[in-house]
Design goal:
- It is found in: Cell membrane.
- By secondary structure, the protein is mostly helical.
- The chain has one domain.
- The protein contains 10 helices and no strands.
- Helix 3 packs across helix 10 and helix 6 packs across helix 8.
- It is globular.
- The protein starts with a helix and ends in an 11-residue tail after the last helix.
- The relative contact order is 0.12.
- The mean pLDDT is 78.
């Protein structure tokens, strides 16, 4: 990872756009994110933008488009190859993480695509899992775009503002995003709990209104 980071820092001009786009695209499309987290590449890109070696607006567009398109390719791979792909030797080593991603997808549906964008292993696997689960592409695309744009802009601008201190910013941004995702999860759990209590209360009310059978004493 350090070698790739050093290589990025030594690039100039349009090559920077091409390399950052390739790394972000390959993260989900080729499962490269399990080896090299994409946020490292875009934070470095932001640092290079702060040094005026690339244009920040152009970099933001490239990162967002690469993230959305890469995840869409990962979705299509999962839709076409499904469990055969997920049972390959390379992915069997991550069985526990795969099971956790499956569980998150079952519980959160399309929201899992957005949440997964902020964790390296989920970012690499979630698009293929969504495709394998036959999630409607339109729904996938909406949450994929929201996550890709939020993630891409956040980390790129973070790198831009931090200049050469990209490693510290990546850690800080990761913690902030982790807190934000945890807050979203807590809100979702609270909503689910309130709905369940309301449903139980409604069931109890219906049960209370049902007539009680009175035994016929004349039979005795």
């Amino acid at each position: 990872m350090g070698h790739i980071t050093d290589t990025l820092l030594n690039l100039h001009g349009p090559v920077i756009y091409a390399v950052v786009a390739a790394l972000v695209f390959a993260e989900a499309a080729l499962f490269f994110g399990m080896v090299f987290p994409g946020e490292t590449a875009i934070v470095v890109g932001g640092v290079l933008a702060s040094q005026h070696r690339v244009s920040l607006p152009i970099l933001l567009i490239i990162v967002a488009v690469s993230a959305v398109v890469g995840d869409s390719v990962g979705y299509e791979i999962g839709r076409r190859f499904g469990d055969r792909l997920l049972d390959t030797k390379a992915l069997r080593k991550h069985r526990e993480k795969l099971d956790g991603a499956h569980h998150l997808l079952r519980r959160r549906g399309a929201m899992a695509v957005f949440i997964g964008r902020f964790t390296a292993i989920l970012r690499a696997l979630m698009p293929a899992l969504a495709g394998s689960a036959r999630m409607p592409y339109g729904r996938f695309l909406v949450f994929n775009a929201m996550g890709g744009i939020t993630w891409g802009v956040g980390f790129t601008v973070g790198g831009y503002l931090a200049g050469t201190a990209f490693e510290q910013v990546a850690q800080w941004a990761g913690r902030v995003l982790a807190i934000a995702v945890a807050a979203i999860a807590l809100i979702a759990i609270a909503i689910w709990f309130v709905r369940r209590r309301r449903r139980e209360a409604a069931e109890q009310a219906v049960a209370a209104e049902e007539p009680v059978a009175v035994p016929d004493l004349r039979e005795n």
